[in-house]
Amino acid sequence: NSSHLNAKKDADTEPPQYKPTLVNQSINTPIVVPDGQHASEKGVSLDENVPKSNIMYALFTVVTMFMASTLLVIGSGPGAWRYYLAGGICATISHSFTTPIDVIKTRQQVDESLKDLGLIKSGMKIVKDDGSLNALVAGLGPTTFGYLFEGALKFGIYEVLKPAIKSILARLATITSMSYLNSKILALLISGSVAGTVASIALCPMEALRIRLVAKPEFAARGWVNGGLTMIENEGIRGLSKGLSAMMSKQVPYTITKNVSFDLLTTAAYSVARTCGYMITKEMKIFIPLVSAMVASVLSCISSQPGDMLLSVVNAQEGDRRTRDFAKDILKNNGFRGFFTGMRARFLHVGLIVTVQLLIYDFVKRLCGIMATGL
Length: 375
Hints:
Layout: H1 2-13, E1 38-40, E2 43-45, H2 52-75, H3 81-97, H4 99-110, H5 119-130, H6 140-176, H7 184-215, H8 224-235, H9 244-275, H10 284-316, H11 323-334, H12 343-367
Antiparallel strand pairs: 1-2
Helix pairs in contact: 3-6, 3-12, 4-5, 4-12, 6-7, 7-8, 7-9, 7-10, 9-10, 10-12
């Protein structure tokens, strides 16, 4: 009896060993963390410093990206830098100023409690739950930095490849007697695919970090750089690239639809204006790109929405689950409609981004001495 009472007393005095588990339905649930760390109701807090090897690897990756981008711009030929410059400027500005909408959209995709709320109500709930308006600008750092690279590569490579791919297709059409290969639209589609793929690889680490900062606000408490180091500590450098397949499923359709449709729409509009005898005035160079950009924004939003949903859920969570596993979960729980969660917020977000982005791109190109798109 005495030993039984002593055992019972020890059980009462020892704290229970609580091991929280990851739950996909909410971003505010605890997650399993390694020894030396502790989990709170809203996520992870680190007690140890990030290994220097991981920091050096991250720095090496950034330096390598800079060097590779510089060599790419130089190798693209005289004057090509103007496309890269215009693309980087338009992408970083358009994505940065729409960060609050992107935050709401991402939180709707990863937090079940926000799923059925509208844009404004979701925003109010996020601010209330997180206790600060700063919650609506979470991830601004990686957004600005990441899309500077992404935009430069996406637009620069696309513009440089267009004449090269068109020339290659024309030769193939002659050699193979397949006249349909000599197609401007096919050349634009191939150029957009390559540009979207390269841009996805460049953007993936910063987008993974952005989504984690938004989905788990405690990662942003000490700044986005420390948030990135926290991800590296928990998951290794692979944590910043695990969403690459999801990123490509979003960015490649997005780039193709946006760039190609804007190219074709502006070209057609200017052609119709000339046919009808109108002069191409300064006002027309604003009106035609504006309308074309608005249409392109709708098309690119629809084509990239499933990939955007996958990207959000993949990067919001820790672990080694693959993109296809998350896709199966979405289909199982919500059907195909599940891929379009957050669509209303994204229509506004992408609509603003693409419209402003393409207008800025066209304007900066003309400032640099390049003809407006479509002329």
